[in-house]
Amino acid sequence: MACDEEHLFLLPLCYPEVIMKFTDRAIKALKPQASRYEVWEDTRPGFGIRVTTTGIKSWGFIYRFDGKPRRMTLGRYPAKSLA
Q: Can you tell me the distance from the alpha carbon of 70 to that of 83, in angstroms, rounded to the nearest whole number?
């Protein structure tokens, strides 16, 4: 399986250990690490949250357009909440 930037749509499958059910408590518990990382929602393929090294959390969605993988940032958490 190709797990690189060219195959963004596969990233949730490449790293299953970072798939979880999104709740407000779970999102608040995500802490910054040495490098930026993403966590994917377990019931919505391509929907996830990115956590930066400074602790900024941004919602994102991975999809395909004209056969190419694309990434869309939907806003920052908590300004854009789960509700």
A: 25
